[in-house]
Amino acid sequence: MKQLLLAIAPLALALCVAPALSAQAPKKAPASPHETVTASVGGKTITITYGRPYMKGRKIYGELVPFDKVWRTGADEATTFTTDGDLMLGSLHVPAGTYALFTIPRNQMDWTVILNKVAKTWGSFSYEKNKAQDLGQTSAKLEKVATPVEQLTIAIQPGAGKNATLSITWETTRVTVPIMVH
Q1: Strand intervals (E) in the chain
Q2: pLDDT of residue 12
Q3: Residue ranges of the alpha helices (H) in the chain?
């Protein structure tokens, strides 16, 4: 019996120590960290949650993100757009709620922004099956930025009163859509 206990003791010790050691191992940073941006506009809160991929030397628009195809506008799960009050996103009336935000980069001068009622979905792969659940689409304004932006950045820039601007910036492109809270 003593020999059995001596044989099992190292195994028991290893089973106890291994989880503690692995818990202390440094975690690898995600390739596309997730971020949540929030802004108060006209007394209402707008929140966007998205994965933030990096360029990593890649050509983004027209290659990694193809023209004329739906893009999840981020990495991993679909980007979510949440508002606690009714608003206009460009020409699209948006009731309070949470939506998936997609875009279609048509070309270097024309983009479409889409809000879909199925907020919890995986990227653009599942968009086609939920396409009938689109709340709607609106056009976006494009501009070139002088210095390339390495990591996808989505922002809500409050303006005067009940106005703001949604901006999506990556590589050398900034896409903007006006927001007006009702």
Answers
A1: 34-41, 44-51, 79-83, 87-89, 92-94, 97-105, 111-116, 134-158, 163-181
A2: 52
A3: 2-24, 127-130
